[in-house]
Automatic annotation (TrEMBL), chain A:
SUPFAM superfamilies: Nucleotide-diphospho-sugar transferases. It comes from Sparus aurata. Residues 107-370 form the Exostosin GT47 domain. Keywords: Disulfide bond, Endoplasmic reticulum, Glycoprotein, Glycosyltransferase, Manganese, Membrane, Metal-binding, Signal-anchor, Transferase, Transmembrane, Transmembrane helix. Belongs to the glycosyltransferase 47 family. Its cofactor is Mn(2+). It comes from the Eukaryota. Pathway: Protein modification; protein glycosylation. The lineage of its organism: Eukaryota, Metazoa, Chordata, Craniata, Vertebrata. Glycosyltransferase required for the biosynthesis of heparan-sulfate. Coiled coil: none annotated. This is Exostosin-1c.
From TrEMBL, chain B:
It comes from the Eukaryota. It comes from Sparus aurata. Residues 259-286 form a coiled coil. GO terms for cellular component: endoplasmic reticulum membrane; Golgi apparatus. Pfam families: Exostosin_GT47 (PF03016), Glyco_transf_64 (PF09258). This is Exostosin-2. It is found in: Endoplasmic reticulum membrane; Golgi apparatus, cis-Golgi network membrane. InterPro entries: Exostosin, Exostosin_GT47, GT64_dom, Nucleotide-diphossugar_trans. It is an enzyme of class 2 (transferase). Pathway: Protein modification; protein glycosylation.
């Protein structure tokens, strides 16, 4: 009995020991390695040499500081370069004539389109591209002032088997007197080569022209010179474009399918290996591989996808799949080795897609599964951002191409990567305004800074100064009393010349009077005098309290990218007229705040004057109306958010005009109809309705609460 | 866990056995037992501290000199690698199978042991041999996480042949030596570091040594030799970085506007610069080498202008912009000096690929001007806003500190870039690469950054945390069920001693009602991301909040839809700085400001449940559960910290008091409880390392709230009734 116990105990001990021994795993391995090390040749980390201090420098200071110099002078070298580095080795320095773009900024960057000849067939897609350029702010009809030239010949489809193939391009372009071996020319192309090899051959010699091409191969891509663009179909909208399909940030961000591959399937030929391998990871449940045979119908499944695969450089459809996929807010999983991603110059794709190596295809499922929820959430939002900023319409694709080239030409006045890759996207960030991130309303949070503590009041004056009791006098006093007001600018838009300095009341802040030249849009001109980030735009007859101004300014500081104002208006869709309607009635929601009294960032002045087309501004000037609606359109198009209405003591009452000479414009029904028309014209130019409704207004925390008035900071607002 | 259980069982039985045995047996057993125990301890020791044993064995081997390196004689006929292929890309010339998939997403780098290569006549292939810089680089890599000593597991190989400076190399022999490396295999996955490429007369912009498919980390690439996405452009290291310590200067205006400190600038450029100086006078300082000093280390540290002597590189700190012109080579060591001085480099080197340009955004730290436009330099620089110049000065210094300051920084950055290519899904972000620590610290990257107004239709899920106030709970459920957008009701039953009432007793409501029973009575259960929550919007509500009207709740949901990344709640609170006590204070009085909303009634995104449960910093979660208080403050801190935004208080203040219960403030009214909440704020602020809460003076009301307008036409008429 005793012996048995003894053995049991002993056995138990041995077991414990063994268990412990095996537990950490690799113990034996370590032991083995330790033992072998002492015997065999030792592979060890880089030694800590005893004579480290005596090692020589890799180069003497002299050698580093005193350049050996070359015989060739820099000017000669540059000239020699353009002879050596051309055609397939083109770079901006050698193949682009900068002297054609002498003038600064937008003025210097003008694009000319060759007139197309009568019997030319121009495809729908190319027509859209030409329209986009023709309507852009860079277009010029004078080839002498052009910096960039675009062909009138359709070069989109260079597949010889295609119906849209244009022959004899070579001879025709050589006939152009401005061709100059392609210098400063931009050539758009979507398809090149033909089945089965789909080479990059365009069928004509592009010379030193910049190639904007879809599905570019890295091998043929001339970095810093060519532009890789996304492929788009002929149905791609000219402007506006659908918003992305991501409307919710669901948590966990998984959808029905984890991974889907889509693409043509060839039994033989290029990429068939990969495609066959793909078939192996198809499991029918959360990883599906869709091939050409089922093309079309399963498109809707994209909406259920988290991630989607895209394949192979040779298949030109790729970028199209990718674009659709981006819109559907599934994250592209790119497996096409050697494919230059669209706008890769400026877009940081690794923040928006999952890139994998085609050779490691079988690892993709595990890689994809290992992507954390947070990252999926971020990737999805980022793909949406990119879609909306650069891909959703032909306008955006073309403009992005032009802006990329413009940034190269004026490299010291260009956007940095941060501007291109964060909201609202590079197209809405004009580097001529500033290249400094903190000068824009979009980057405060990303930079960890907060908006300035002061504002500039811009008062739009239209009636002549006749008495000291005019509303503008009262307004000046109210505004200048605000502790956040740093200066006041009066924009004199009256027929009479501005009154002398002494006529204005004395004020604690500097007062400037500038001439608005009787244009309504002048109130949104980017006056250099505006030194603060915040602008308080005012009509001369606005009735406000200092505390209202102060409160609204503090609200603006929380929402610096939006318009913060007082009187709201709303738009709606009128199904009977099949048009947009505009209402000034009291409603439960609003989408516009009038800029007769509103805070916004001064950058919007610049956007208003330089981003919007001349035609819209002319409309505003001609009718002396709608400038506020246009401003609201612009800001909502940039932010995708509604404006913010803040508390106001009095509702706008239609006060009788003090002079009694002129009737108030907004009492006029014609005025109202004009505004209705404006809403439709603007929506037409933007290509969609950017205005967004909001259902709340922001009040002071204790507004109209049953608390002692003494406690309230903004008690004035509650007085009747 | 199993092991612990087994040993526990054993030891508990042990003592019970012993007294029953005979003495000699007892001694025998005790001896046996101690032997076994000792064995166990020894095994355990071995398992948990094996590294100390290994490294102890290594010490003796480190006492070695560079001269001990084994000699390798190169036969004249030994093969020469091919010249690098300009078409090489990661997917064509790099063997990715060696790197494979690993959970850490980190490449493994192997360094060849040092060997001394000589030709048949015994002449070494390099005039310097191993340089101090290359040695620093290799030892930094061997100390980094990338290093492996297992050649079979390596993904990247770094030869110990020093090719930093082409001038000291015999090109043909160096190439032969490379080809002799045991794993060379056409240069596949090999990485060479070179800072001074080319030689007279034409100075190639890439290393002239034939190298097959090896990757090149080069310090002077031009756009024609740089294989984008394959090579890495690195800086030319300046040894002055190690010798001279330049303290960081506050960004701001400097004595000079533009400074040119390079010697031996081509006379064409110098003439141009002189002309600029004539036009703009004192703003420019053009330095050259001192004619009275002979060559040598002393001369390298001095610069002269018309007989006046300046210390180099200290003088660089006196200028806003510093010119870095190309010479025979594109890469200049001066760039490193300039960055170190916090001077904004003005780079004039056409076609130059800036160091680490794959990841660094040089537009934020430098001005690149085409050589042709040298004459316009002054006007171009003058047009840059002051604030941006300051920003660039800060950025320049940060680039130097992080990526230029030492061979270690250069080496590790290069490997990180290659690592990012091989595991792109785990790559470092733009912000991580480019934001200096001060920006990283103060900026936020909201996880819900896309401006979306989610559709109304999915509605929200109400999560009611309850313990045993069944009657009150049922009233709350009945009240909430009237809200049109309610999609689901989730009751978190936090009482383990009592079962929830029978199903038949619960109020009948039109939406699904689920009860979740928790394992422990913890406050954090309220913020758990239950799978049952299928909507984005969550309404957290206490079981005694019966005073909120259906209009108020629906309005709250509408406001949340416009602010899906914020807490949208009803009762607001404030944090204040107590000057007397020198710490934060919690304020629940009626104030004009708000920095928190109570989660006793608040809408928020379900994502924040994830964050609260899995990403709460420090021990905050445990602290909250232990004190049964402040979970709402913790949530406010968390959301404000990650979004940088204030919460939104909706609708007028109302008395959160119900007739029969102690109300939401019930506990808070207790004085000690209030003191504890102040403590919470101080505790959380110290854990977060900052005070993330933002103070605002606004709340959200319906557009027509209290307006002179017929109530029945308002969308949310029943708001603010007490």
């Amino acid at each position: 009995m005793q012996a048995r116990k003894k053995y049991v105990l002993l056995g138990l001990c041995a077991c414990c020991w063994l268990v412990l021994f095996y537990w950490g795993g690799g113990v034996q391995l370590r032991l083995l390695r330790l033992l072998t090390r002492h015997r065999g040749e030792v592979v060890r980390p880089w030694p800590n040499w005893t004579d480290r201090a005596f090692l020589p420098r890799y180069a003497h200071l002299d050698e580093l500081q005193t350049d050996p110099g070359t015989a060739e002078s820099p000017r000669q070298r540059r000239q020699a370069w353009s002879a050596i580095y051309k055609d397939s080795r083109c770079r901006m320095e050698t193949c682009f004539d900068f002297t054609r773009c002498r003038r600064r900024g937008r003025e210097g960057f003008r694009v000319y389109i060759y007139p197309s000849e009568k019997n030319d067939r121009v495809s729908e897609s190319y027509r859209k591209i030409l329209t986009s350029i023709g309507e852009s702010r860079y277009y010029t009809s004078d080839p002498r002032e052009a910096c960039l030239f675009v062909l009138g010949i359709d070069t989109l489809d260079r597949d010889q088997l295609s119906g849209q193939f244009v022959p004899n391009v070579d001879e025709r372009i050589r006939g152009y007197p401005l061709w100059n071996d392609g210098r400063n020319h931009l050539i758009f192309n979507l398809y090149s080569g033909t089945w089965p090899n789909y080479t990059e051959d365009l069928g004509f010699n592009i010379g030193q022209a910049i190639l904007a091409k879809a599905s570019l191969n890295t091998e043929h891509f001339r970095p810093g010179f060519d532009v890789s663009i996304p492929l788009f179909s002929k149905d791609h909208p000219q402007k506006g474009g659908e918003r992305g399909w991501l409307v919710r940030n669901t948590i966990p961000p998984r959808r029905k399918y984890l991974l889907m591959f889509k693409g043509k399937r060839y039994l033989t030929g290029i990429g068939s290996d990969t495609r066959n391998a793909l078939h192996h990871i198809h499991n029918g449940k959360d990883i599906v591989s869709l091939t050409t045979c089922r093309h079309g119908k399963d498109w809707e499944k994209h909406k259920d996808l988290v991630l989607s695969g895209s394949l192979s450089p040779e298949e030109s459809l790729d970028s199209f799949i990718c674009a659709t996929c981006v819109q559907a807010a599934c994250i592209p999983v790119l497996l096409s080795n050697g494919w230059e991603l669209p706008f890769s110059d400026v877009i940081q794709w690794n923040q928006a897609v999952i890139e994998g190596d085609e050779r490691l295809l079988l690892q993709v499922p595990s890689t994809v599964r290992a992507v954390g929820n947070e990252r999926v959430l971020a990737l999805r939002q980022r793909t949406q951002m990119l879609w909306e900023a650069y891909f959703s319409s032909v306008d955006k694709i073309v403009l992005t191409t032009l802006e990329i080239i413009k940034d190269r030409v004026f490299s010291h006045i260009s956007r940095n990567k941060y501007m291109w890759n964060s909201l609202p996207g590079g197209l809405l960030v004009l580097p001529e305004y500033s290249t400094h991130l903190a000068h824009f309303p979009f980057y405060y949070l990303g930079l960890g800074v907060s908006p300035g503590q002061e504002f500039t009041a811009v008062i739009h004056a239209v009636s002549p100064l006749v008495s000291q009791s005019q509303p503008i006098m009262k307004l000046l006093q109210v505004v200048s009393k605000s502790k956040y007001c740093s200066q006041i600018i009066i924009l004199w838009n009256s027929e009479k010349p501005p009154p002398s300095r002494s006529k204005w009341p004395p004020m604690p802040v500097p007062l400037t009077v500038t001439d608005g030249r009787r244009k309504t849009t002048s109130r949104f001109l980017p006056h250099v005098a505006i030194e603060t980030e915040a602008v308080l735009s005012l009509d001369e007859d606005t009735v406000l309290l200092t505390s209202e101004v102060n409160f609204a300014f503090l609200v603006w500081r929380s929402f610096p990218e939006r318009i913060v104002g007082y009187p709201p208006r709303s738009h709606f869709w009128d199904p009977l007229k099949r048009a947009w309607g505009y209402t000034s009635k009291w409603t439960n929601d609003y989408s516009i705040v009038l800029t007769g009294a509103a805070f916004y960032h001064r950058y919007y002045h610049y956007l208003f004057s330089h981003y919007l087309p001349q035609s819209l501004r002319t409309l505003v000037d001609r009718t002396s109306n709608c400038e506020d609606i246009l401003m609201n359109f612009l800001v909502s198009a940039v932010t995708h958010l509604p404006p913010i209405k803040v508390a106001q003591r009095k509702q706008y009452k239609e006060l009788p005009s003090p002079q009694g000479t002129k009737s108030v414009p907004w009492a006029n029904p014609e005025h109202f109809n004009q505004r209705q028309e404006c809403v439709n014209t603007f929506a037409n130019w933007f290509g969609y309705m950017p205005l967004v409704h909001s259902q709340f207004r922001l009040d002071p925390v204790l507004f109209k609460d049953q608390v002692s008035v003494l406690r309230k900071k903004y008690k004035d607002l509650e007085k009747a | 866990r199993i092991r612990m259980y087994a040993t526990g069982k054993y030891s508990s039985r042990g003592p019970a056995l012993i007294p029953r045995m005979k003495t000699k047996h007892r001694i025998y057993y005790i001896t046996l037992f101690s032997v076994v125990l000792l064995g166990l301890i020894a095994t355990g020791m071995f398992q948990f501290w094996p590294h100390s044993i290994e490294s102890a064995a290594d010490w003796s081997l480190d006492k070695r000199s560079v001269h001990d390196a084994p000699l390798v004689r190169l036969p004249v006929s030994s093969p020469i690698p091919e010249r690098g292929d300009l078409g090489c890309r990661m997917h064509t010339c790099f063997d990715v199978y060696r790197c494979g998939y690993n959970p850490k997403n980190r490449i493994k780098v192997y360094i060849y042991p040092l060997q001394k290569f000589v030709d048949e006549l015994g002449v070494p292939i390099s005039s310097t041999g191993l340089s101090r810089e290359y040695n620093d680089l290799l030892s930094a890599i061997s100390d980094s996480d990338f290093y492996t000593d297992d050649v079979t597991r390596a993904c990247l190989f770094i030869p110990s042949i020093d090719v930093l400076n082409q001038n000291s190399l015999r090109i043909r022999e160096t190439a032969q030596a490379l080809a002799m490396l045991p794993r060379w295999d056409k240069g596949m996955n090999h990485l060479l570091f070179n800072m001074l490429p080319g030689g007279p007369p034409d100075y190639n912009t890439a290393l002239d040594v034939p190298r097959d498919r090896a990757l090149l980390a080069g310090g002077g690439f031009s756009t024609w030799t740089y294989r984008q996405g394959y090579d890495v452009s690195i800086p030319v290291y300046s040894p002055l970085s190690a010798d001279v310590e330049l303290p960081e200067r506050q960004p701001g205006p400097r004595r000079y506007f533009i400074l040119s400190s390079q010697t031996a600038i081509h006379r064409e450029y110098r003439a141009e610069l002189e002309r600029l100086k004539e036009e703009n006078g004192e703003a420019l300082l053009l330095l050259d080498k001192c004619s009275n000093l002979s060559q040598g280390a002393a001369a390298a540290r001095k610069r002269c202008y018309k007989g006046q002597v300046y210390d180099y590189p200290q003088i660089l700190q006196e200028s806003s912009f510093c010119v870095v012109l190309r010479g025979a080579r594109l890469g200049q060591a001066a760039l490193s000096d300039v960055l170190q001085a916090g001077c904004v480099p003005v780079i004039l080197a056409d076609s130059y690929i800036l160091p680490f340009s794959e990841v660094l955004d040089w537009k934020r730290a430098s001005v690149v001007i085409p050589e042709e436009k040298l004459s316009e330099m002054y006007t171009i620089l003058k047009s840059i806003p002051h604030r941006q110049v300051e920003e660039m000065q800060r950025q320049a210094r940060w680039f130097w500190e992080a990526y230029f300051s030492s061979m270690k920084a250069i080496g590790v950055t290069t490997l990180q870039i290659i690592n990012d290519r091989i595991y792109p899904y785990a790559a470092r972000t733009y912000e991580q690469w480019n934001n200096p620590p001060v920006v990283k610290w103060s900026s936020v990257n909201s996880p819900l950054f896309l401006p979306l107004i989610p559709p109304r239709a999915p509605g929200f899920t109400a999560v009611v945390l309850t313990y045993d106030r069944v009657e009150s709970l049922f009233r709350v459920i009945t009240e909430i069920s009237k809200v049109p957008s309610l999609a689901k009701l989730l009751v978190v039953w936090n009482n383990q001693n009592k079962s929830p009432p029978e199903e038949s007793l619960w109020p009948k409501i039109g939406v699904p009602l689920k009860v979740v029973r928790t394992k422990e009575n913890k406050l954090s259960n309220r913020f758990f991301p239950y799978d049952e929550i299928e909507t984005e919007a969550v309404l957290a509500i206490d079981d005694d909040i019966i005073m909120l009207t259906s209009d108020e709740l629906q309005f709250g949901y509408e406001v949340w839809r416009e602010f899906p990344d914020r807490l949208v709640g009803y009762p607001g609170r404030l944090h204040l700085w107590d000057h007397e006590m020198g710490k934060w204070k919690y304020e629940s009085e009626w104030t004009n400001e708000v920095s928190m909303v109570l989660t006793g009634a608040a809408f928020y995104h379900k994502y924040f449940n994830y964050l609260y449960t899995y990403k709460m910093p420090g021990d905050i979660k445990n602290w909250v559960d232990a004190h049964m208080n402040c979970e709402d403050i913790a949530m406010n801190f968390l959301v404000a910290n990650i979004t940088g935004k204030a919460p939104i208080k909706v609708t007028p203040r109302k008395k959160f008091k119900c007739p029969e219960c102690t109300a939401i403030d019930g506990l808070s009214l207790d004085q000690t409880h209030m003191v504890e909440r102040s403590e919470c704020i101080n505790k959380f602020a110290s854990v977060f390392g900052t005070m993330p809460l933002k103070v605002v003076e606004h709340r959200a009301d319906p557009v027509l709230y209290k307006d002179d307008f017929p109530e029945k036409l308002k969308s949310f008429p029943n708001i603010g009734s007490l």
